[in-house]
Amino acid sequence: GRRTPETVILASDGMTDPFRDGSGPATGFGGEVYIESPALVGADFDTIRTSWELDSLRNFAATVADMGGITGHLERFGVVSMELYAPDGSAEEMVSGDRIGIMIGLEAPGRPAEVSVAPGETIRMIPITLLTPGETAHIVDGGAAGRREVAGRLLGTGVGVVSVVGRPSVV
User: Fold this and answer.
1) Rounded to the nearest 5°, which phi and psi values hold at 127?
2) Residue 28 has pLDDT above 80, yes or no
3) 0.85 exceeded by the pTM?
4) What does the angle CA 100 – CA 6 – CA 88 come to, to the nearest 5 degrees?
């Protein structure tokens, strides 16, 4: 993880490692994923280790691995959204049923979208952003247009990629 003055960034490590059997690209799944949260500022290791943020990141990273990557989806659609099972400790106001919604791949001002890992080889840095139940429902009901609207509002209102529990919905 990385701490900024206002947030803690938790990131995957290993999704861009080459596949052990030599198949696939040298950069594995082509990107590492991260979540940024102000709630973890000042938190000790055990709090971070047991946080819903880290559990959500692990769940998403495992889902990306099961899917064979997500960079192709991001290249095709710009941003994508997904529902994940709500990890233990998730705040009630962010859970719908037994799931949380996330936005994947929003532009993150001040954060690199790509990182060079070797000459001629870059990987994507892919943020996930926690959605409110209302935002998730808007995307489910509105499809691609709903997703674009929520993404635009997250960026336009300054929420961006930061996952804040209890924030007002942008829709």
Assistant:
1) -80, 145
2) no
3) yes
4) 25
